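INSTRUCTION: Work out how this chain folds

Token vocabulary: learned, describes local backbone geometry

RECORD BEGINS BELOW THIS LINE
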Amino acid sequence: MIDSIGFFNTAVPLGVLALLAVLLPRVLVDRETRSHGKVLHGIALSAAFLVAIGFMISIGLTQMRGFEAVGHFEIDPLGAAWVHLRLSLMAAIVWAPILGLAWFGHAQGVEARRGQDSAAVER
């Protein structure tokens, strides 16, 4: 049986989620956009993916610990979904600040491109 907190059942999954919080916005947000709405959409989509991936990681870790996580969905689907969704959202304490910084960086890029466009028009 795996300990409650350990390298492979805590640090590795959180590290994967943190890495994805850096990489997903790079893939999902257009680097040349001048729209904060498009940046917000990409960040929100990244957050949704991170919650979903955290949900799947939670199921996998629970199953590895010897509890019948998949079988619990047959008995009480809403209860099982709530347990794993809650655990996935608890992992947001790690990835949400990283995603916030990515959002800030993309927002600065939007403003920089808008400034360049404005300067080019004034010439």
The helical segments are 7-28, 36-64, 69-75, 77-90, 92-122. The chain has a mean pLDDT of 93. The radius of gyration is 19 Å.
